[in-house]
Specification:
Catalytic activity: D-ribose + ATP = D-ribose 5-phosphate + ADP + H(+)
Number of domains: 1
Helix content: 25-40%
InterPro entries: Carboh/pur_kinase_PfkB_CS, PfkB_dom, Ribo/fructo_kinase, Ribokinase, Ribokinase-like
EC number: 2.7.1.15
Organism: Faecalimonas umbilicata
Strand order of the largest sheet: 5-4-1-8-9-10
Keywords: ATP-binding, Carbohydrate metabolism, Cytoplasm, Kinase, Magnesium, Metal-binding, Nucleotide-binding, Potassium, Transferase
CATH architecture: 3-Layer(aba) Sandwich
Number of helices: 10
Radius of gyration: 18 Å
CATH superfamily: Ribokinase
Largest sheet: 6 strands, parallel
């Protein structure tokens, strides 16, 4: 099982405060942390911690943040030999405010903006060696769409996590194996004309919509809409929970697990990730997820 992630690699500058400030308001922060992040890198780390063989594709700058991020990925067991180090381009940064069990994020793309058509063309032959390619939208959308078309033409499974929110052309939706928006992203992609249930029924076992504390939903091939409830958590930081869910879901699908079991596993992993600070810092191992699933089964039993 070999997974490729093509996406963003950021340094997260995370400030904790009593709450998220209002427009025009100044608050005193409690602490500041510099933490490896980026949706692509986060999902790659989540997969590696869950036992997958993962290769990261993307760009960083030739600066101290870039060096630290490459070192962190290697430490986590993620392959980095296809990450391009760019001169005179800063590594991407995410400015994150955490308060009241929620967060706001502003991303400055930097080197992530250079994951362009030239870079995409340079990695296409390499991607043929992987069982699945996982993409997000923190790199240029033209690159994302081009790689989805390439994977579809070459029979490579693709998971697209359409975050940050942006329109996804319908022909691209047809070509991905799975599309995993949250509720807000789904509205931007499909409009407000249809309910969540109606959307899910249009794309059985392709469209997976995450709904925060209400869990995650998908339509089975038989037309039944399945909602996997969220695991209750003592929340410390929600940053990276969605990336953990996508990473865990990708690993389970690549292993051939049924979609219901894959979502139950992914939901549990995402919930566990919120109980520790930092996007990658809270991501659980396979042993931790399995232990929690077993504990829940014993409770039900």
């Amino acid at each position: 099982m070999k997974l490729a992630v093509v996406g963003s690699i950021n340094m997260d500058m995370t400030v904790t405060a009593e709450r998220i400030p209002l427009k025009g308001e100044t608050l005193l922060g409690d602490s500041i942390h510099y933490i490896p992040g980026g949706k692509g890198a986060n999902q790659a780390v989540a997969m590696a911690r869950l036992g997958a063989e993962v290769e990261m594709f993307g760009c960083v700058g030739d600066d101290s943040n870039g060096e630290k991020l490459l070192e962190n990925l290697r430490k986590e067991g993620v392959g980095t030999r296809h990450i391009k180090v760019l001169k005179e381009v800063p590594t991407g940064i995410a400015l994150i405010t955490v308060g009241e069990n929620d967060n706001t994020i502003i991303v400055v793309p930097g080197a992530n903006g250079q994951v362009d058509q030239i870079y995409a063309d340079s990695i296409k032959e390499e991607l043929k060696a992987f069982d699945m390619v996982v993409l997000q939208q923190e790199i240029p959308l033209e690159t994302v769409h081009d790689l989805i078309c390439f994977c579809a033409e070459n029979g490579i499974k693709v998971i697209l996590n359409p975050a940050p929110a942006a329109k996804v052309p319908l022909d691209i939706i047809e070509k991905v194996t799975y599309l995993t928006p949250n509720e807000h992203e789904a509205v931007l992609i499909f409009g407000e004309g249809e309910t969540t249930e109606e959307l899910l029924k249009k794309y059985p076992e392709k469209l997976v919509i995450t709904q925060g504390s209400r869990g995650v939903s998908v339509c089975r091939k038989n037309g039944e809409v399945l909602t996997v409830p969220a695991r209750p958590a003592i929340v410390a930081d929600t940053t990276g929970a969605g990336d953990t869910l996508n990473g865990a879901f990708s690993v389970q699908i690549a292993k051939g697990e049924p979609i219901a079991e894959a979502l139950r596993y992914a939901n549990t992993a995402a919930s566990l990730s919120t109980e520790k600070f930092g996007a990658q810092g809270g991501m659980p191992t396979a042993e931790e997820v399995e232990r929690e699933l077993k504990r829940n089964e014993e409770k039900i039993g």
